[in-house]
Specification:
- The protein is globular and about 55 Å long.
- It has a single domain, classed as Up-down Bundle (Growth Hormone, Chain: A).
- The chain has 8 helices and 2 strands, in the order ααααααααββ.
- The protein has about 210 residues and is mainly α.
- It starts with a helix and ends with a strand.
Length: about 210
Amino acid sequence: RMPAAVYLIGALGFIAFMTEGTIADWSGLLLHDELGAGEAVAAAGYPVFELAMLIGRLAGDRIRTRLGTRRLLTAAGLGTALGMTVVVLAPGPGVALAGFFATGLVVCTIVPTTISLAGTAAPDRPAAAVAQVGAMGYGGLLLGPVVVGFLSEATSLRVGVGMVVVLALIIAAAARFVPLRTEGDITVPARPDTAPAPDGTDPEPVPA
């Protein structure tokens, strides 16, 4: 049995993948049916989101190093909620596309962070922990669009897609409970009786 932290991390990945799956499957329909976009504009929703994800992931490591894991996940959750709120309340296709782009910039950092945290949450079984988190995440990728479909059928497509806003806020709230064992979150103090070697490799004792 995995530590509880692994399942918490997996749940965050699950939500992030649900967001990605929802945008992949429903962005075009939202733009076309709800906002009156033409086919070309409606088809641009997911590529715009993916472009933003690419840009965000290129800078993700630097941002994580600066903010730390908990702050990064909190910011990503809040940013995702804000971006999807813009999408759900958009008066036209242009605003919705901007919301998809903003969402992609921030949600892209969540899945890589959860995968990197998985092994450190179960140091005795890192491979199994990574597999568990990955499986939970991809479950969200498959389940998210289905849940949105049921909600949309019962209410409206805007409400169904709006589910992502609530889930993203859960990420922001749960980020404070993520274990901090990764590089960038903990600074290991140097031993007082050692100093860096001239070549920067192994420390050498400091002369008394």
